[in-house]
Amino acid sequence: MRPVLTVDPDAIVANWRELARVHGAPAAAVVKADAYGLGAAIVAPRLHRAGATFFFVAQLEEGVLLRRLLPGATIAILNGFSTADAADYLAHDLAPVLGALHEIDAYRALAAREGRALPALLHIDTGMNRLGLPGHELDAVASDPGRLAGIDWLYAMTHLVSAEAADDPRNEAQRLRFAQACARLPPMKRSLANSSGIFLGEAFRSDLARPGAALYGVNPTPGLPNPMRPVMRLQAPVLQMREIGGGESVGYNAIWVAARPSRVATIALGYADGYHRAASNRARVAFDGMRLPLIGRVSMDLITIDATDAPGLAPGGMVELIGPAIPVDEVAGWAGTNGYEVLTSLRRRAGCVVGPL
Ligand SMILES: *Cc1c(COP(=O)(O)O)cnc(C)c1O
Q: Residue 104: what pLDDT?
């Protein structure tokens, strides 16, 4: 009697293939944050067997875990390099994404100590102002290419600020800034688009796209139909059903009051499972082809549903919270966030099933 998270690796593989097809060039797989909450150990080996050779994670520790699963893949660490981590980078053959002069200098020193060119990516900031070489540091390496020597540069990359807003002029501005920056550097392959960037057209094609969210079914083209397949389903069972009279309230703080005699289903899932409390009194769940309103507060381990119109719902019955009938982006709308946060919030307290939805 607990939530069940089903993850469909075949659907993730299908999404990866579709993204590479739309990109018209290779695509990596971004599997940071445990594959956006769905389980890197489930997702990454399947993608690798399907032909993905390049994987991104955020943290060194994620890369160390991933290396055990993917002995043959290239694994890049988005959050960069510090000398304190040198031994792990070497032992597990990980490639840092270097986005600051001090990181480049430290990594070159390591390569010199090792007596060989070590792999890395060069992150150029074109507007995010978060990670990546800022303008003056780009000037420094462009005017003195020796500062890039001794490293096996796999790709130059940049990251789009608002790729999901196709008409935002920042996209084109960043694309141009990236092209101009690369022209000032020694020749290397380029990596530009994230999930949404892949859908910005041919001009945003590069040698390697870096999709994450779209692999996991988040719509990379908000406002347009979702071109990706759903890859997960979160379900939870009914613990109890009860009849209440009109005027009675349900749950903490009585924020929902029945306008008519109602049947209330209490479901075994709450914010401790990663279901957002902000969706209180707003969300819908699916049962037997119907969408039923979540009523009252989302509490720690329980939610309540108005099942008056679903006479077939009974204790033990499963409702869908997120999945093919309740898209992750719609849940995000109810919770006032995005699909990325909905997925990465999921807790593995849920039982996990791997297979078709
Ligand atoms: C997370 C991340 C991605 C993947 O972005 P999505 O929008 O999830 O496709 C790509 N590149 C960088 C630098 C990232 O941090």
A: 98
Testing ligand 1's pocket by substitution, the residue of 121, 123, 129, 210 carrying the most ligand atoms inside 8 A of its CB is: 210
**CA 29/CA 35 separation, integer angstroms:** 9
Question: Running DSSP on this structure, what letter comes out for residue 230?
Answer: P
| Ligand 1 atom, smallest distance to 157 CA | 13
Is 89 annotated as catalytic? no
Residue 3 neighbours by CB under 8 Å, 6+ apart: 234, 235, 236, 237, 268, 269, 273, 321, 349, 350, 351
Question: Structure tokens of 99?
Answer: 């986005």
Instruction: For CA atoms 4, 10, 13, 19, give the dihedral sign.
Output: negative
Which pLDDT score is estimated for 351?
Answer: 78
Neighbouring residues of 156: CB distance < 8 A, sequence distance ≥ 6: 121, 122, 124, 178, 181, 182, 185, 188, 189, 190, 191
32 assigned to active site: yes
Residue 272: C-alpha distances to residues 107, 282, 295, 305 (Å): 41, 18, 18, 18
pLDDT at 349 over 70: no
